[in-house]
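seq/struct pair 1
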Amino acid sequence: MQSSTSSFASSTSSTTSDAQSAPPELTQLFRDICKNSAELLRLSGRDVPERWNIADLVEAVIGDDALLIPGHLQDTYYDVLSKGCSSWLFKDLSEFIELTQNLV
């Protein structure tokens, strides 16, 4: 059985592979979520850890399976757009970054 934390060690190639296996509209939603999340992190003064890229970070927080669920990605996209730094994803990304920085 695969551990739920196994997605934390995600690589760019696995994220790209996951995105390529999704329908085009999901791939675009994921890209837009990543773009908006990166901008929110930048505006809040947070940096994506050097060993991560934004796509891997978002995938680790959202979860691999959620990338294939249209309703979940759409809800996440609109939540990030409408709530910005108050969105669940931004809060979880911030907590994840803080947690990983505390482990180093």
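seq/struct pair 2
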Amino acid sequence: MDEELEKYKCRLLEEMPLTDSQQIAIEEFKDKEEEGEEKQEEEVIEEKSEEEAVLEEPVAESIEIWIDAVPGIGPIVQDHLIKAVQEYMISVAAHQHNMVMPRNIRHYNCPPLEVVETN
């Protein structure tokens, strides 16, 4: 069942069109990659002598590009929810030779990782 669900999610993500920010990021990185290849071809290292030869590695500039969150993954999980699941997993692992398994995450005693509204 889980494998089928994962395949379904992967298929949905493949079929989903890229967001504007994802397309911008792809174009931005493609341009930088092409520029880097051109610069490497144009660079000529001058050798003075074997003792004085210094190889300089080009320093890559870092560029921050924001990409929108992929729909379906979900929002940021609050710290107190993470802490509750962490404490539950530690207690479960103590009874299972320090191991936690997927069934423990799906167990009804496991705290949720999302806010559940009760009416």
